[in-house]
Write a structure and sequence with these properties.
The structure holds 2 protein chains of 2 kinds. A 6-stranded mixed β-sheet of chain A has the order 1-14-13-17-15-16. In chain A, strands 2-8-7-4 form a 4-stranded antiparallel β-sheet, with no helix packed on it. In chain A, 28% of the residues lie in helices and 19% in strands. Chain A is an alpha/beta fold. The radius of gyration of chain A is 21 Å and the shape is globular. Chain B contains 16 helices and 2 strands. Chain B has a single domain, classed as Orthogonal Bundle (Ammonium transporter fold). The termini of chain B are far apart. Classes of the chains: A alpha/beta, B mainly alpha. The interface between A and B is large, with 68 and 40 residues.
Chain lengths: 443, 319
Amino acid sequence: MLQLKTFPKGGIHPSQQKISAQASITYGEIPKQLLIPVNQHIGRTANVVVKKNDVVKRGQLLAQASGFISSNVHAPVDGKVMKVFRFSLLGGAIGEVIQIQPDEPGKSYREVLEQDVELSVDLNKLTAEEIRKRIQEAGIVGMGGAGFPTHVKLSPPPEKKIDALIINGAECEPYITADHRIMVEQPAQIIQGIKILKKLFPEVPVYIGIEDNKPDALNMMDKAAAREEGIFVVPLKAKYPQGGEKQLIKAVLNREVPSKGLPMDVGVIVQNVATVLAIRNVFYHNRPLLERVVTVSGSLVEHPGNILLPIGTPVSYIMDKFNIDRERVRLLLAGGPMMGRTCHSFESPISKTTSALLFFDEKAFVQRQENPCLRCGNCVSVCPMGLDVAIYVQMVQKNKLDDYAKEHIMDCIECGSCTYVCPANRRLVHWMRLGKRIIKREN
Amino acid sequence: MEAKNLLIMDSSPLGLAGESTRKIMYSVVLSLLPALGVSFWMFGWAAVRVVVLTSLFCIALEALIAKFFNSKIDYLDGSALVTGILLAMNLPSNAPWWLLLIGSIVAIIIGKQVFGGLGQNIFNPALVARVFLLISFPLQMTSWPVPGQFDGTTGATPLGILKTEGVGAIAKLKTADLALGYVGGSLGEISALALLIGAAYLFYKKYITWEIPVSFIGTVFVFTAIFYWINPQQYASPVFHLFSGGLFLGALYMATDMVTSPISGRAKLIFGFGCGFFTALIRLFGSYPEGVSFAILFMNAFVPLLDRYFPEKKFGMQS
């Protein structure tokens, strides 16, 4: 048996619950209305460039990036702008949304996609400049969850020499299978995307990291990559948070991103598989980022699945589609149980970073009774960053951070492993986030 | 809309591994059962009386504090029970009831609650109480009933004999008797084997790690072996030191107390070494025959320092 690669320190093994792993990607219909969030990325909020009653075409710009670290937002379908207003987004924040009334509600989104012609792409004619520019215009952001603008990640300063690309197909969060299905169903397209990225960093090897709990994805990607030079599939041990950027780099290349540093500091750029597929579609379909695959699962979903939906589709549409009983839902999670956010409205729309929607009744939720810290050290031993979580959290709670804590808290990747194993049920990662905020405010 | 239909909002992660304070504490209680069984066998109902009384006193005291000072205290979380049992294991089976009550008051109130309760205390509460009693009531704390003899015969512990009568007097003690518990002593310092069985369960449950017991016991062994090698006429053998007194109870149950021991592996090794070093020092050169409690309490004070200067290795930091 081949030694599986993994990150060395910490990590946990939560129940994987990949119930929808064998469910092929399905297609929804165009819902009666779409609510397109203006801010679906890390960085400055985009400026809305449409107004009420404007008629928009599929792919038309709705909001323009304001600056380099920002991202464009486009209309996923033909329709009319009804209004621009502030609304509850998935994850609890309130943000600006653009309400669009589609021209053809009820039309299969698959048909919409089939109308997009497949273009032939001559990689030799594409320049690095052009690739970056088109990715930027297409509003591509990291679809693994963070939503960092992809063109920024792909534009390292010249002094940072990039000598490896890693494609993140780890998908270590429980329940989520969106990337898994993409890798099984569209391996050739992912490779096309990788080859576009390779144009930016010629001669640089590409590693596709996939956890070994997805043997079919490993197999399909392996077959697709075998025909290509310099693209390697790396099987990884199924362990959370294997898909964390720094953990993935350590596992695949045994390089440690320095504290407070970025992957480019060790010559690496990491892209999620869904992002790579979106990049591919920019060039092969001339299509900006308009849709994504969402895993719909949880104890209240009778037939968990993976569905391709236009950005802006409200949760309520998905609940109807999957026959989810509204009265019974007590817990709605955007993302997985480890890093996902609880949501408070069924009308919130999905965004570029919504990898999963999970629906649970109250049985799935353990009321967290926070008890005093026992100093058992579980949080420290599972922390993949080696942080002294319990000690920092006590300081944060007293608002007395010493220099040592300030030095390290910012390295927290908020994976939630500490909270998961805490016998005293303390919301450790919550306090770590607060600590990060305190430090940011001070600087 | 009624409140019960509202969606739950909470901070991630939503899943839990299913550990709890109660589980840990009651596992510790469970792991102490073999050792308790041996002391019940050796000392009879007198030992049962000591364990029941200290446990009840400790829980009742915590319940009183919960009632009058801080209603958030969960006095049935098992921590008071663990303190009560550990305190009992540090006492002779003929201890009068008032001694048990004073010990419990010192353990729960001075050892634990004045610091802010569970998780906040710097020193191991049961040890604070033991040392308090040892200094305040030396007579009651040093007349040890002889195991297996229920007629009230008392005698000194092997370490006491060693301290007062010298190496020659302990020559007739068999190592097997020491390991199994056929020697005078407190409830918990008699059977190293039963303590090991209980601790194995805690290792299995990952509630304690190997670092502290191994470095603690190892240090005592090496340190006493050096002196035995230099002069066997004056110093007892390391094997004798290993199996006599409260070394196993201290190394497996008292020094590994989560609250009062360091977090990282390196710090635990140093902590265990310190415990072992001072134990051996007191045993060989101190005026008290036994040094385990003093050594652990002394090292407890260093825990914040050890946590700070020997932390876990950080990801992305060149060390």
